[in-house]
TrEMBL record:
This is Threonine/homoserine exporter RhtA. It is a multi-pass membrane protein. Keywords: Cell membrane, Membrane, Transmembrane, Transmembrane helix. The chain crosses the membrane at residues 43-60, 72-91, 97-117, 124-147, 159-178, 190-208, 220-239, 251-269, 275-297. Residues 7-141, 156-290 form the EamA domain. GO terms for cellular component: plasma membrane. The keyword S-adenosyl-L-methionine does not apply. It comes from the Bacteria. Belongs to the drug/metabolite transporter (DMT) superfamily. 10 TMS drug/metabolite exporter (DME) (TC 2.A.7.3) family. It comes from Xenorhabdus beddingii. It is found in: Cell membrane. It holds the Pfam family EamA.
């Protein structure tokens, strides 16, 4: 069981790394493509990749679709189309710092939803870990500048992104609670397909995707392939596998690593973080480990007392 849990943690970290790397890559894509069109192209490659893998690994079983098609459509609309659409649209008026902080509240929302469904409050140590990790994320994204007026710039964009984060929390809990007799790969594939279809309808309605795609650069399309395969198909699959093994509440807290990995990718690209941001990274990781029970408070205090 312990090895299984550790394997799930590794998969979840890989998923959050891909999502974190999506930030700089998506910023490059949006310089050449409109947001809804970019989302459609991203999930076009993601759906092709995930269904090829599904057919090779498990086979495509219509029985699973017949049993869960309503759940797949709803969760695809909320967790794929809703979350990504809200993120791109919200960033048009909200600041990236505010957006990252709002998205970082997703683990708290997921734990609250899961507690309501199961009528069981999360453990105090998990709440403390979530609060610490959230403070660490805030420190990273604000660079230690805690002036509220400098952070919050647009309530409209903030609200859109917050609704998107609620959608992701609902998706995280919903794939475990409502989907029946489906593997993580099947759940990922079908929810991603229906989410991509919904995104396509929205793009056709509000943009001109065919014209936009034809005028996009080769580099922008190459970037869409990356965020489609790595930042969507592999990330969603590994995330759902982590949820299936460890549960929604324990998995959702790792979502705090997304802005951390985004910062690390920028650092690799030459943008060195400040001391305040480095401290925030350490605080976030410590909070996640504490909330997951990887750090024992009793042992920690005993070790300090012995010294």
């Amino acid at each position: 069981m312990r090895k299984t849990s550790q394997f799930a943690v590794m998969l979840t970290l890989i998923a959050t790394f891909f999502w974190g790397s999506n930030f700089p890559v998506t910023k490059f894509v949006l310089a050449n493509l409109p947001p809804w069109t970019a989302s459609v192209e991203r999930f076009f490659f993601a759906v092709i990749c995930i269904f090829i893998f599904l057919a090779w690994k498990e086979g495509i079983h219509t029985k699973v679709l017949k049993q869960n098609w309503r759940e797949f459509i709803v969760l695809g609309a909320i967790g794929v189309a809703g979350f990504n659409g809200a993120f791109f649209v919200g960033l048009q008026s909200a600041s990236p710092i505010t957006a990252a902080l709002i998205v970082a509240t997703t683990p708290i929302s997921a734990n609250i939803l899961e507690s309501i469904i199961y009528r069981q409050l999360p453990r105090l140590i998990r709440i403390i870990g979530m609060v610490i990790s959230l403070l660490g994320v805030a420190l990273v994204m604000t660079n230690g500048q805690w002036i509220l007026g400098d952070i919050i710039q647009s309530a409209t964009g903030d609200m859109i992104i917050f609704l998107g984060s609620l959608g992701w929390a609902t998706y995280t809990v919903g794939i475990r609670v409502f989907v029946k007799n489906a593997t993580p790969l099947e759940t990922t594939s079908w929810t991603m397909l229906f989410g991509a279809i919904i995104l396509a309808f929205i793009a056709i309605f509000v943009e001109s995707p065919l014209h936009a795609l034809s005028s996009g650069t080769f580099e922008s399309h190459l970037a869409c392939i990356y965020i489609g395969i790595g930042g969507s198909a592999i990330a969603y699959l590994f995330w759902n596998m982590g949820v299936a093994i460890r549960g929604a509440g324990k998995t959702a807290i790792f979502f705090n690593f997304v802005p951390i990995f985004a910062l690390l990718v920028q650092m690799i690209m030459g943008d060195i973080p400040s001391l305040a941001q480095m401290v925030g990274i350490v605080v976030t990781i410590a909070g996640v480990f504490l909330g997951q029970g990887m750090i024992s408070v009793d042992r920690l205090f005993k070790g300090i007392l012995r010294r």
